[in-house]
Specification:
Layout (H helix, E strand, L loop, with lengths): L4 E7 L24 H11 L5 E6 L7 H14 L2 E8 L6 H9 L2 E6 L4 H7 L5 H16 L4 E7 L7 H11 L4 E5 L7 H20 L6 E2 L10 E5 L4 E3 L9 H4 L5 E2 L11 H15 L5 H12 L9 H22 L2 H5 L6
Helix pairs in contact: 7-11, 10-11
């Protein structure tokens, strides 16, 4: 097994209670939940490199909260995690779940894209009721003493409101917000330029207001490992979240193994070619970021026959991400940022 692994991503359920149009896990059954035996196989497989960072995602993890709690409990009992995070839309978060997460030292990463108008545009079918639930869940998480971060996904149609939405979230009391362009959406030169202009203004406002660290820049930092071990509910393993955005005819080229069959760690024949390409990329970019590795995987996906129709969208997205990273590196090199105590590239 190639080491080190960045994260163990457990997309353990593909069920969700919302219908975000830009969700990168587009092609899923809305019916699958990982079995405990498959989960145990994953733990056995990663044991030689434990402790590792676990990220639970979906779907919506809290839709299958009983299974989520079982898995987190086992991970803590076995001592195989140095960090656990749960990505959630927060609509189902309540006091009991919050207490469980605090007890087990779980970071919550909540997706919230800004004000209600932006949410309505980006998440069709979500009205007042769900937006109220999102805000309630976010405030519950913010009021707890545990670790909490947020992700603001920016759709091309809402790029012009990036700064306003960031200010909105800061006014709510959020202290750390990852700002990401939505993957595989219709980015073009015009919308990318709007995003970048807004992002530069947001960075300038962040520093002017003494809020260094408000915009999370983890994706632009040096990557601690070369690949993610990402499990889908069936137990099949991918090396990056970006592959989830593509149909199964693309995805099938990038499955590395199937841990529903056991934990021997037998890689599929196609894994060798993938890891060789990945090693060449990392070797050519010794200080490459997590964002760079994600972009590498996206560009691999569109080389497949079924992935070619996404080529232009991926190209625009990668170009945009490279410019975001340039901005981030300039900010991360400033004395103001360094004095804030944040990690510097």
């Amino acid at each position: 097994m190639i080491k080190p692994i960045n994260h163990v991503w457990l997309f353990f359920t593909d069920r969700c209670n919302l219908g975000c149009g830009y969700c990168f896990y587009k092609y899923r059954s809305q019916q699958q939940v990982i079995t405990l035996s498959t989960f145990e196989n994953i733990l056995e497989f990663i044991r030689p490199v434990a402790p590792v960072e676990f990220v639970f995602s979906g779907g919506e993890p809290l839709v299958d909260a009983p299974r989520l709690k079982e898995m987190i409990t086992v991970i803590r009992q076995k001592g195989v995690a140095r960090y656990i995070s749960v990505q959630t839309n927060a609509t189902l978060l309540d006091e009991a779940l919050m207490g469980f997460f605090l007890c087990h030292q779980v970071n919550l990463e909540v997706g919230i894209d800004g004000d209600e108008a932006t949410t309505r545009r980006n998440r069709p079918g979500i009205g007042n009721f769900y937006y109220t639930d999102i805000i309630r869940g976010v405030k519950l998480a913010m009021g707890a003493p545990g670790s909490f971060t947020a992700t603001m996904t920016v759709h091309p149609s809402s790029a012009v409101k990036l700064l306003d939405n960031l200010k909105y979230l800061a006014a709510m009391g959020l202290k750390s917000v990852e700002v990401h362009p939505a993957f595989l959406e219709s980015w073009d030169r015009e919308s990318s330029d709007v995003f970048l202009e807004q992002y530069r203004r947001a960075c300038a406002w962040e520093l002017k207001e003494g809020l260094s660290g408000l915009i999370g820049r983890g994706y632009s930092e040096f990557s601690k490992g070369a690949w993610d071990l990402l499990a889908v509910p069936s137990g099949k393993i991918l090396a990056s979240w970006v592959f989830l955005s593509f149909p199964e005819k693309v995805r099938e080229h990038f499955y590395l193994m199937d841990l529903s069959l056991g934990f021997s760690g037998k890689f599929l024949p196609q894994a060798e070619a993938y890891f060789q390409a990945l090693q060449e990329h990392v070797g050519a970019h010794p200080n490459c970021s997590y964002r760079s590795i994600s972009n590498f995987n996206a560009l691999l996906a569109v080389k497949t026959k079924s992935g070619r129709r996404y080529e232009q969208r991926v190209k625009h997205y990668v170009d945009l991400c490279e410019q975001i990273e340039e901005i981030d590196h300039k900010i991360m090199g400033t004395s103001v940022w360094q004095r804030s105590g944040m990690k510097v590239f």
